[in-house]
Amino acid sequence: MRIYLVVVDETKEASVALRFAARRAAKTGGAVQIVALIPPAEFVQWGGVQATIEEEAHQRAEALVSGAAGTLIEETGIRPSITVRSGEPVQVVRKMLEENDKIAALVLGAAASGPPGPLVNHFAGTDAGTLPCPVMVIPGSLSREAIDRLS
Q1: Which of 129, 84, 124 is nearest to 108 (CA)?
Q2: What is the C-alpha to C-alpha distance for residues 68 and 95, in angstroms, rounded to an integer?
Q3: Which end of the chain is more exposed for a tag (fewer CB within 10 A), N or C?
């Protein structure tokens, strides 16, 4: 089964990428894996404060992914797998790609204006030729209709 790996955050382009991946998965009999990344926390001198900060970040990421999954199920009927991982975003995504050979594509959303984003810069730039799967960069400016037409 083809799996489309989508990195989600609170940006519009992440929603665009998720919609595109869901539509492709529906049309190809594939699946969607949603991942929310929690960047490494800055060191805080007191351990209890550090643990609280990390727990709050994890809860925000879980809420974000759950909301995205709910929308996906409602619109396409596809039940995505959900992953929340902590660490350096590029390293976490690369490890996920290496661990799962069923991932057919990494689907990333590019910002509608300005720099496309750090993951797009990395995976569609310097490291593009070393990946085990294609990278789909979805323009964040696409409308729902355009996504539906193109997917």
Answers
A1: 124
A2: 22
A3: N
